[in-house]
Specification:
It is built from three helices and five strands, in the order E-E-H-E-H-E-E-H. With 137 residues, the protein is α+β, with helices and mostly antiparallel strands. The longest helix is centred in the last third of the chain and has 41 residues.
């Protein structure tokens, strides 16, 4: 999920088989995402059905979520998005080891996203500049 125009938007969603899930049918815990947004800290949930922080939340119950891992994408102290992974099949799938690994990747992903955005901006400005130069001559 990435921030676009100030709002968090699902950009890529896949199921366990790697099939794309479209953003309008992507089911996730808004409570967990909200916690990561506010704290800018990762959240690891071993069994959301039993965890007192989340077990009473509608999305946890409705989607029967068990294991959840959510990590912020932070660049220069600014959150640019987050990575959210969950399992409805089993609890205790994610441990501190997976959290540390995903957190490490998150830093690299944030840099790559910023580089891609800067590249797109530069390309757009280059096209505009060429168009303006063409009008002068």
């Amino acid at each position: 999920m990435l921030y676009e125009n100030g709002e968090l938007q699902v950009r890529v969603a896949r199921n366990i088989r790697g099939d794309q899930i479209y953003s309008d049918s992507f089911q996730y815990s808004r409570t967990v995402i909200s916690r990561v947004e506010k704290s800018k800290q990762p959240v690891l949930v071993s069994d959301a059905q039993q965890d007192p922080r989340f077990s009473t939340r509608d999305s946890i119950r409705m989607y029967q979520l068990r294991s959840i891992l959510c990590v912020p994408l932070i660049l220069k102290e600014k959150m640019v998005g987050l990575i959210y992974v969950d399992s409805r099949l089993a609890q205790n799938i994610f441990q501190e080891r997976q959290l540390a690994l995903l957190n490490l990747f998150a830093g690299q992903i944030a840099v790559a996203i910023e580089n891609a955005r800067l590249h797109d901006k530069l390309e757009t400005e280059n096209i505009q500049l060429r168009h303006q130069v063409g009008q002068i001559y």
